[in-house]
## 1
Amino acid sequence: MTQQLVHIIGAGIGGLTLGRCLLRYGIPAVLYEKAPAVATTRHNYGITLHASSYRPLLNILGLDELSFRRRVAVDGPVGGSGKIDPNLLVCPGTVDSTSFRAHREKLEGLLRQGLDVQWENALEKVEETPSGMLLCLQNNQRLESECIIGVDGPHSNTRKYLSPDTPLNVLPYVAFNGKRRVERAVFDNVYAPAMGDSNIIEMRQGDVVLHVSVNEQQGSIVNIGWTFSRPARGTTDPLHKPNRPVSGATDISEEFFEEIAALQGLEQPFMEIFDVEKLRMERVLHWLMRTVLVSHQELCAFAEKGVFFMGDSVHAEPILGGEGAARAITDGIELAKCISLYGPGGIRGWYDSRHPKWENGVKESENTIAEMHGSPKVAQ
Ligand SMILES: Cc1cc2nc3c(=O)[nH]c(=O)nc-3n(C[C@H](O)[C@H](O)[C@H](O)COP(=O)(O)OP(=O)(O)OC[C@H]3O[C@@H](n4cnc5c(N)ncnc54)[C@H](O)[C@@H]3O)c2cc1C
């Protein structure tokens, strides 16, 4: 078993899972995170998890399945376990009876217990030196290590420095997202009759998909999330802006509100959420559906220099139709096992088994988002 200190860049779902599993094996790790120390509003939304990814975590966390689900479920505070009714989904095949909606910040809080997270300590750049790799962190910290693991998400600086030519593909879909705080009485009268005890409901009108989900249920307030998505309409679609800057996410064109106003005969809770006048008063985000896949060959070349990767930094799937959280959790569990058995020297072999799954995952996610919007499934 290796006792070498592992340096993890990024304390999101994958980095935290990796750190927590390494801790279980007695392997020391430090996580460097760009974001400031935990704000409760950091990731206040739900993500879908399946048993195949979360069951292997239970032993590490020392929790049984029901306790885990209640602890992290979006409706955990009111006694729920994150239930999803597949009949209320546009693509029912993407969930099974074990799938549930986890509150992302609660999940991260649980994973984070006992870990050394260095907040507001972003990786700024990576330099190649004669003796290996030098990571330059915020606060002028310099870090040389034989085991650096980049888990810094789809916009990974670690990847951008080492693999500047790997493209961030933007899929041809238009997607908008928003949040609303709803009084309990409104939730019970307007949302609950259609949603029952499911935490998501979706509908399709033509190729437009509307999605309403519970981000968090508290006693008197329910936080709701929504998305509006559809395929891009050719290259002149005013709502498809694949090259917009990060800061452009909040620039919402008038055409978006016109499309919402043109939706016909919505029933509740869609009528309540997709009310143009209310949406105009709220923060709406323009989402890009991105994918990333770094080649196996490049990963092996970085491994020679002591820099390794997992999670969205090297295989990102789109938010809609993707399974990025599930894959990041599985990466973290399996990479920790590999390091505990073979040390960092075993990670090249781990890539051999894992990379085909990442490649397949990206293809599957592209298929799922197409199917979700009414296109037939393409054979793999
Ligand atoms: C709104 C939303 C909904 C989603 N829903 C689902 C879902 O239902 N199901 C699903 O499977 N997936 C979902 N996903 C995707 C899922 O959250 C990601 O795939 C998953 O979090 C990837 O884990 P990761 O650890 O690789 O990256 P992240 O969880 O993104 O973690 C990366 C971390 O690195 C930090 N970081 C970034 N740059 C630096 C730097 N330079 N230095 C140090 N730290 C840095 C970031 O702050 C972040 O904490 C959703 C994503 C979003 C945004």
Note: Residues 257 and 276 are 6 Å apart (CA to CA).
## 2
Amino acid sequence: MLNRRQLLALPAVGALGVVGCSQKRASATVPGSSQVGLSPKFLEGHGLAPVVVDPALEIRTITGLRPYRASGFVVRKEERGAKTLVHNYGHGGGGMSLSWGSAHLAIQQVKAVTGKSCAVVGGGVMGLSTARLLQLHGAKVTLYAESLPPHTTSNVAGAQWWPVSVFDSAKITDEFRGQFVEAAEFAFRYYQSMVGLRWGVRWVPNYFLSDEPPMNGGMSGPGSLLHHLQVNFRDFGPGEHVLPAQYARRFHTMHIEPAIYLAELMGAVQAAGARIEVRRFASGEEMLQLPHFTIFNCTGLGARDLFGDTELETVKGQLTFLLPQPQVNYNLLSGGFYMFPRTDGILLGGSFEKGVADLTADPAVKARVLAGHTALFAKMAGRQSAQRIGYAAGLVAISPPAP
Ligand SMILES: Cc1cc2nc3c(=O)[nH]c(=O)nc-3n(C[C@H](O)[C@H](O)[C@H](O)COP(=O)(O)OP(=O)(O)OC[C@H]3O[C@@H](n4cnc5c(N)ncnc54)[C@H](O)[C@@H]3O)c2cc1C
């Protein structure tokens, strides 16, 4: 049994806001713990189940190439003779999130689509969303793609609804900034109508951990482009939470299960009458030979060779999945690592290899990602048990974690 002095010597306990003498216990309140639905006495993160990181639990390791453009994704119309070609590609690490919004902007490029016969080239999230929105506008759609779900990059996405790694902020224009925010807002609203088991979309709290105070501006926090979409946003400092870092930034986002979502979306596109043709185009010119006057190019990385867009580059990502752990119900992102709990497995990620196009899984990356998450969740479990011990000994002015 630990005595009080030993308890105070626990580094984690100090960081948890132990109250040094027991008479303070009754009056102490924990700052910053106004989490929705919880009593203010709980420290943030108190009831979160740490992930069990054990290589024996691995079920698969997969890789994918993010279609990245430093100046941002392309939504642009070109008139090519009698044909209208609308580009919608290059969404980097945020295509799952932006899909409906970018599809909406692409369709806006064409005056009226009702009753028109349109081709959509691409069977990833961007092609399928564009096809579905076109149908909802009354267009007749034929979808062409070399690969369909589950064999697209979109199926590899971690699929947190949060469009990051989409552009380099030093390289974007004000016009693109507007396009990005408009796409994000539209998609954020649209996805909310798909929350539920049918589409595999749900709300989840996200914790971004750091040992320095979190930065504001850019993509996160007050003053950032999408701060208005950071629901239930709050920063927690030392002593305000039990997560394995000095600082924790929390906000809620939706999370998408690609295996469920993309299959359902493809089914919806087909059910609404679209014909789907598996076909590879060797060039943009070949695409323009299609018997449709309006063609949407949603080919992701494919656009680089099809239309000579040399700005498109690959950013390789590798994900290792462990057996599902249904007790884990939050996303955790720390020091370049990220964990998303999905029904098809606990996703562990943390690799962004610019310019790498080889899809072979790298054992060294897997070892690094597993080691990083092992250390993170061991620290989290340690802090939680220190909190429980501290509470049991009457040293922490908080309630015990929920069972
Ligand atoms: C590891 C990883 C993690 C990610 N995590 C997230 C995340 O958490 N959140 C998020 O929002 N996004 C995430 N992304 C990014 C997201 O996956 C992409 O931005 C998105 O999938 C791009 O969709 P897309 O439809 O443009 O491309 P794709 O899914 O690649 O689809 C392209 C389609 O075009 C077809 N095509 C290409 N060339 C041709 C051709 N010549 N002829 C015929 N058809 C062609 C392909 O066959 C395919 O059907 C992640 C990506 C990776 C790799």
Note: The domain at 66-203+254-315 is CATH 3.40.50 (Rossmann fold).
